[in-house]
Design a protein that fits this description.
8% helix, globular
Amino acid sequence: MTSHLERSHRVLLAGPIDRVFPLFTPIGETLWVEGWQSEFLHPKNGETQ
């Protein structure tokens, strides 16, 4: 059996949404630290859903 857990919260950011939102996506998080290798669990390709 596969289950999916979803959580949410609010973060206030000092910048335009089109500039800061991509940094909080699975793939965008890899831009924060050089050499960071994320392990995407769901979906496996790290695509934002």
